[in-house]
Design a protein that fits this description.
Layout (H helix, E strand, L loop, with lengths): L12 E4 L2 H9 L4 E5 L13 H13 L3 E6 L8 H15 L3 E3 L5
Parallel strand pairs: 1-2, 2-3, 3-4
Length: 105
């Protein structure tokens, strides 16, 4: 079957500044949301705690939705260990996907 003839499910990925916006996006039908981590996120005004993100994951799983946590700032050598620990916390929470920017300085 040719690629253009296959049926593809279109997924809606919505930004979530905080827990409540993430819940609203899922309530409105989003298949996934992306939310900034408390550290190393490009949106400095997105102040999501680890607890808020854990709650978002629990809520999303009720609706079979996904949560992507963004870690998308430039990391310096002295920040790598803190970032590694933060990633470990999110992996323990739900084996959730993480969105990274790949530059490390």
């Amino acid at each position: 079957m040719a690629m253009d003839q296959r049926k593809r499910k279109i997924e809606i990925l919505a930004p979530a500044k905080n827990l409540y916006q993430g819940m609203a996006a899922i309530n409105a039908g989003a298949d996934a949301v992306y939310i900034g981590a408390p550290l190393f996120g490009a949106r400095t005004n997105a102040t999501n705690s680890v607890a808020d993100i854990a709650e978002m994951v629990k809520y999303a799983h009720l609706f079979k939705a996904k949560v992507f946590v963004t870690l998308n700032t430039i990391l310096y050598d002295n920040e790598l260990e803190t970032c590694r620990r933060l990633i470990g916390i999110y992996m323990i929470l739900a084996w959730m996907p993480l969105l990274f920017r790949t530059w490390v300085y």
